[in-house]
């Protein structure tokens, strides 16, 4: 979504004092976000002592540290521990949705043009965590990919491109369908809680896709099948990079 919500608090205040207050609040929230990741690491390491991460996960952590720095390694460690710990418990799909949604919603929102110097760039989950932020597509891709890894069937999920009416911006969310005919629930970085689509009148769906299919959304229902998701160039590029392991470096360091 082409808007950086952390910064919008600073705009249109009308006074220097309001600006300074919002600046202080923004920096305080940013410091708290970094602290949460740091606090998660010792807990993750304690778990690793009794439940060591697979070598594949350790390799991901090492790549994140080498490409993006030590803090990135901590975020990726927390992500991989979340996956391992969730897989080890008999959790409902609803609980898995909550865990994954809450985990990634701690990340910072920032436009692609500022982070990657590209108008539209769909980051892999490793790039998203490595960069410490991203836009709505990056939140959605990370959630969708992690839920797939946790055993949520692909045919129960879609990434939905919508118009966010409150912001007059295009936006992306993840929709989860408990059954093919059920009202989906929406995982969104704009609103922390997971809500049924019928309670998200602020979103107008345009099209949706998953690993296999593409739908054109004529209403708030399933939509009309429009072919394979391979028709989406950015989706194909993302999948190719996930397969090859290529990592892009952001033009700004959000950990500074």
| Widest sheet, order of strands | 6-5-4-3-7-8-9
Structural class: alpha+beta
| Residue-averaged pLDDT | 83
* Helix residue percentage: 40-55%
Beta-strand segment tally? 9
- What is the count of helical runs? 9
Structure description:
With 256 residues, this protein is of the alpha+beta class. The strands form 2 sheets. A 7-stranded antiparallel β-sheet has the order 6-5-4-3-7-8-9, covered by helices on one side. Strand 7 and strand 8 form a beta hairpin. The protein is globular and about 45 Å long. It has helices at 5-8, 16-50, 55-68, 70-87, 93-104, 112-115, 125-131, 136-149, 233-244; strands spanning 108-109, 133-134, 157-164, 169-176, 185-187, 195-196, 203-209, 213-216, 224-228. Residues 2-23 and 41-45 have low confidence and may be disordered. The chain contains 9 helices and 9 strands. The relative contact order is 0.12.
Q: Layout of SSEs?
A:
Elements: H1 5-8, H2 16-50, H3 55-68, H4 70-87, H5 93-104, E1 108-109, H6 112-115, H7 125-131, E2 133-134, H8 136-149, E3 157-164, E4 169-176, E5 185-187, E6 195-196, E7 203-209, E8 213-216, E9 224-228, H9 233-244
Parallel strand pairs: 1-2
Antiparallel strand pairs: 3-4, 3-7, 4-5, 5-6, 7-8, 8-9
Helix pairs in contact: 2-4, 3-4, 3-7, 4-7, 5-8
Brief descriptors of the model:
disordered N terminus, 256 residues, 7-stranded antiparallel sheet, alpha+beta, globular, 16% strand, 9 strands, single chain
């Amino acid at each position: 979504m082409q808007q950086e919500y952390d910064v919008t608090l600073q705009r249109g205040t009308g006074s220097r004092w309001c600006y300074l207050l919002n600046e202080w609040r923004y920096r305080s929230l940013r410091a708290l976000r970094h602290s949460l990741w740091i606090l998660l690491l010792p807990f993750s390491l304690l778990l690793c002592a009794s439940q060591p991460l697979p070598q594949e996960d350790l390799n991901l952590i090492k790549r994140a540290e080498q490409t993006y720095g030590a803090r990135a390694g901590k975020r990726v460690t927390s992500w991989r521990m979340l996956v391992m710990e969730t897989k080890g418990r008999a959790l409902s799909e609803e609980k898995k949705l909550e865990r994954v949604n809450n985990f990634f919603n701690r990340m910072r929102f920032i436009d692609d043009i500022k982070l990657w110097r590209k108008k539209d760039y769909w980051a892999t989950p490793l790039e998203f965590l490595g960069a410490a932020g991203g836009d709505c597509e990056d939140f959605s891709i990370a959630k969708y990919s992690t839920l797939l890894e946790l055993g949520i069937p692909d045919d129960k999920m879609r990434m939905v491109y919508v118009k966010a009416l409150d912001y007059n911006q295009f936006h992306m969310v993840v929709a989860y369908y408990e059954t093919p005919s059920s009202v989906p629930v929406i995982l969104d970085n704009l609103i922390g809680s997971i809500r049924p689509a019928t309670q998200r009148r602020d979103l107008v769906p345009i099209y949706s896709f998953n690993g296999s299919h593409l739908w054109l959304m004529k209403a708030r229902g399933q939509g009309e099948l429009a072919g394979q998701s391979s028709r989406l160039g950015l989706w194909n590029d993302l999948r190719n990079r996930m397969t090859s392991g290529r990592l892009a470096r952001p033009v700004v360091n959000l950990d500074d």
